[in-house]
Amino acid sequence: MINTDILIIGAGPCGLFTVFEAGLLKLRCHLIDVLPKVGGQLSEIYPKKPIYDIPGFPSILAGDLVDNLMEQISPFKPSFTLGEKASQIEKTEDGSFVVTSNKATKIKAKVIAIAGGLGCFEPRKPPIEGLANFEDNGVDYMVRDPEKYRDKELLIAGGGDSALDWTIELSEIAKKITLIHRRSSFRGALDSVDKVFALAKQGKIDLITEAQAVGVRGTNTLESVEVKTDTNQWIDVDYFIPLFGLSPKLGPIAEWGLQISKSAIDVNTLDYSTNVDGIYAIGDINNYEGKLKLILCGFHEATLMVQSAFKRVYPDQKLSFKYTTVSGVNSF
Amino acid sequence: MEEIKITVTDREGVDHVIEAPTEMNFNVMEILRAAELPVEGTCGGMALCASCHCYILSDHNLPSPSDDEEDMLDQAFFVEKNSRLSCQLPIQKELHGLKIQLAPDAD
Known about the structure:
Helix content of chain A is 22%, strand content 29%. Chain A is built from seven helices and 21 strands. In chain A, helix 1 (13-24) packs parallel to helix 3 (62-73), helix 1 packs across helix 6 and helix 4 (161-170) packs across helix 5 (190-201). Chain B has 107 residues and is α+β, with helices and mostly antiparallel strands. Chain B has one domain (3-102): Ubiquitin-like (UB roll). Chain B is built from two helices and five strands. In chain B, strands 2-1-5-3-4 form a five-stranded mixed β-sheet, covered by helices on one side. The chains are: A alpha/beta (332), B alpha+beta (107). At the A-B interface, strand 17 of A face helix 2 of B.
């Protein structure tokens, strides 16, 4: 079991900066994030977009801000559980919490800081009737093990990098691949787009554009997908792989007994505590009167939150506030 | 201040006429949210989430979708030829009388 002072759920900018402010107070942090990399929305949605409202940076690319934050928190040696979702929470007798991930990782912490942003990023699922019946039974929303598709017939849907890249890679091992996309042009990397068109020309894949999947059928496992172009046709497949990117969902945290309104967690602005003693919520995931979903505000919330967390971790110690210009950054 | 009128058909088929000022740098998504219509605008207007997906019902001459907008529509569902992301439509006086319909909620 991992043991820490503060478990931060969400490794976006707000979660990362929490490590710094906590570190100044000698509090150790562990972070868990459902994404395989740190940075949250900044890494997942807009790494190449400039941000103009980070104090002291007239303009900074989102990806660079994440890199800078990682450098800034490195003295405090945070540990990470990435690619796992915080699923369950239990309170222990000593007043701590044990959070269990969807992959059975257990993390014990005296304080929980939910910095979950918009929630967990999950694959976008096309609204096709009956699709859920075939999940893991012929319908996969991501490619985990390419070998699974050896000598199989696949239908891949989507027009982005992942649809293109997997079409190219799996064309080597699958028996047959059909790629369908809503328009005739693709948004993926130019090189991948050229490769896919070349594969189609050589007859190695079937490319159907201005098309979308509208139906699925099968008895126990998926057997056929209905593809709509000018006409409708059923294509027999072993696997249907819709790749439409990720979208955020509040996820299991919604079941933790926290007071939630409008997909956000209500907090007390005194210290960003929730209705559950020992659980705090900071950044885009919290809600209070006058809330603004800004990175800048999340940093402020993180800073005040750790002061309150300190009192919980060390109830008998007096907290003396020190400027970094006076005391520097004393690493662990 | 100049105001334009936009007619919005919500997901229950009910029409709402909303007024929008042209000089405040708003986009249609922000106006829909301000009118408390069920539009999330999760990404804040960066054409990165498709939660403000709508259909254009009138024949207004709109600015063509950017590559970013097309890319995002590729990841959305219920996409039709008249689909747009409302966050990519700045409120201008040329939009007066615009008629739009909210796309179904994909979640």
